[in-house]
Amino acid sequence: MAGRRRPANGGQYFDCDNPCTGEVWARVARGTAADVDEAVAAAREALSTWNGLKPSERGKLMLKMAELIDTHAPALAASEVRDNGKLYAEMLPQMRSAADWFRYYAGLADKLEGAVIPTGRPDMLTFTRLEPLGVVALITPWNSPLLLLAHKLPTALAAGNTVVIKPSEFTSASTLEFAELFAQAGFPHGVVNVVTGFGSEAGAALVAHPDVAKVAFTGSEEGGRRINQGAAADFKHVALELGGKSPNIVFEDAQIDAAVVGAIAGIFAASGQTCIAGSRLLLQRSIHDGFVGQLVDLAGQARIGDPMLPETHVGPIATPPQYAKVLEYIAIAKEEGARCVLGGGPYAGSGTSGGRFVLPTIFTGVDNRMRIAREEVFGPVLAIIPFDSEEEAFQIANDTPFGLAAGVWTSDMARALRASERLQAGTVWINTYRTGGCSTPFGGYKHSGLGREGGVEAIKEWVQTKTVWLCGKPDTNQPFVMRH
């Protein structure tokens, strides 16, 4: 923190293992409330320095940071692969994307403009000021630590805030490496701080800290609920990007080959460990059997193994608790009466000894009332649900506590437009799945979260709006009546 690494106040550390091998590869400081206090104090002290810079100067520093991310992208990507087991082939482009987020918001740093408001009063000048919130907390997950940090951090910095980051205890190494680049880029000390540790210790202390103005969190529904409750005690601003049980809907008039590929991309990419996973595949009954046959054939060809190898399609499950959870849900699905047509358990092929691998798994005969269709698995497990009519498809799709994303495959553009209106989701993909970018808003409906990340409007979620009434002709009349 404040530009340098140091041990935790308590002197304790914890181990991080490689999910591909099970071997410990990093030891990370176990931060406590005392470390959070120091990090928040450093961020608070840096506020005046950071806001003393011209907005364009802050933007230039962010552009420099983007250059450094590009330069260090291979090393950062490799660190994330060791931490969470996702494919290097995906992590490297994610690092490039993180750089793009810094460039995008660097360009907005000097474009936070208030407005002069016409009130119809000739003796008044009324205008608004957009001011930073102050010290903000960013709590990130283990599945894509740096990309999901980039969804928050550059926006907060461009708006003039200073930050304290708490990465997942399962994937802290890449965030620590990333944070060191800020000093190289020339950022003032204390603008960006990292406290590593456990959610119940460092995370809880950060959420409860009285000098933190906003908490932004990406993670599970339950984690988001706890953070929202904790932040409410001090009326902190909150942004939550939580879970999903996203429907991927295929109509009979779709381009079937493309939809099969899209269904696989939606659930088996990243081993299903993504909040936008298309974990419910809704198939029109007339194409159900043929589609399932193609899907099983193609998904069954997926190569499982070392995520650093370019030929690997499916890597390991990132954490021991998540590995156990995925296998538990597979067992639940079987108990509920769903039919397993692919996979259905651990994978122990060549080169995977000690790792946490699960076979790509597909269930048919799923009813939307089953737990496998209603609860987030966060693994390579697909539930297939048949439907007859468009209306039934939309009803099933919306019958979930979540609303993060949805996919629709159809050649009927009128239907596509109806779907974009009817589906209760923050993102709707038509004839594609699992894509995004820094210029487009992202967030969820219902239990999938609060607020939006990305796009021009997102920066306003990191500022407060102040209205100023400047009177050019003070009134000396009746003081007991409000002026109108």
Automatic annotation (TrEMBL):
Keyword Cell division: no
GO molecular function: oxidoreductase activity, acting on the aldehyde or oxo group of donors, NAD or NADP as acceptor
Keywords on record: Oxidoreductase
InterPro entries: Ald_DH/histidinol_DH (IPR016161), Ald_DH_C (IPR016163), Ald_DH_CS_CYS (IPR016160), Ald_DH_CS_GLU (IPR029510), Ald_DH_N (IPR016162), Aldehyde_DH_dom (IPR015590)
Annotated Aldehyde dehydrogenase domain residues: 12-468
Active site: E241
Family statement: Belongs to the aldehyde dehydrogenase family.
Entry protein name: Aldehyde dehydrogenase
Species name: Scleromatobacter humisilvae
Record lineage: Bacteria, Pseudomonadati, Pseudomonadota, Betaproteobacteria, Burkholderiales
